């Protein structure tokens, strides 16, 4: 479905990562858009770069969708 449906973060400062994922879920941000997003270094959020790098979302991953292009114009 390309939608983030939930997450469980275990570890020190897990709230930092969880708040990013929660915001993405509240905004219905597709996983391929998260995969294309850069996360700052040095933060725990940059671990999301490693997580999403391992996902195979197909050839359109990270590319704007048609409805995104329409909103920008």
Report on this structure.
By secondary structure, the protein is mainly α. It has one domain (14-72). The protein is 45% helix and 0% strand. The protein has helices at 14-26, 31-36, 47-53, 66-72. The mean pLDDT is 80.
Quick summary:
45% of the residues lie in helices and 0% in strands. The chain has 73 residues and is mainly alpha-helical.
Give a quick set of tags describing it:
single chain; 73 residues; mainly alpha; 45% helix; 0% strand; globular
Instruction: Report the uncertain regions.
Output: none
- The chain-level mean pLDDT equals 80
Instruction: Describe the sheet with the most strands.
Output: none
> Strand portion, in percent?
under 5%
Number of strands: 0
Q: How does the overall form come out from the CA principal axes?
A: globular
Radius of gyration: 13 Å
The topology string of helices and strands comes to HHHH
Count of structural domains: 1
Q: How helical, in percent, are the residues?
A: 40-55%
N- to C-terminal separation? 26 Å
Helix segment tally: 4
User: By helix and strand content, what is the structural category?
Assistant: mainly alpha
């Amino acid at each position: 479905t390309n939608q983030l449906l939930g997450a469980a973060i275990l570890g020190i400062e897990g709230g930092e990562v969880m708040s990013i994922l929660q915001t993405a879920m509240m905004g219905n941000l597709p996983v391929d858009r998260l995969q294309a997003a850069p996360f700052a270094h040095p933060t725990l959020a940059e671990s999301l770069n490693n997580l999403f790098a391992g996902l195979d979302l197909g050839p359109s991953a990270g590319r704007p969708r048609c409805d995104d292009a329409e909103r920008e114009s």
